[in-house]
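Practice problem: SnoaL-like domain-containing protein
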Amino acid sequence: MGHPVIDRWHEVIKSGDIKALEALLDDEAVFHSPVVFTPQRGRRITTLYLAAAFQVLGGSSFKYLREVIGETDAVLEFQTEIDGITINGIDMIQWNDAGKITDFKVMVRPLQAINKVHEKMGEMLEKYQKAAS
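Answer key — structure tokens:
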């Protein structure tokens, strides 16, 4: 059986609802990207990165393959395909007693998948930044 935080995460993934995503994140949430060295800190930037990831990774081929869920953390293995490249990765999610995600780390393999994610995430984040200007 899942955990309420992970159940809500799956609802957010299915709906793509950015407001629901924001509500699930703690004010001090930290996002660890597979392609950016520095952790991104705060709800706003974490929302931005995860929303971009929804657009880049969340196509029709995206699926979770397995989940390991504890009391305050989970590891979800995923697979998707972009431009003919199969991407395999994991989402490592931690949450607090209030049921808010405090830490979200994405790890991706193989190298050509990381390069493709880097390219596509860069394009998506640039679009978001232009739209916000």
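Discussion: The domain at 4-125 is CATH 3.10.450.50 (Nuclear Transport Factor 2; Chain: A,). Students who identified this feature from the tokens alone can consider the problem solved.
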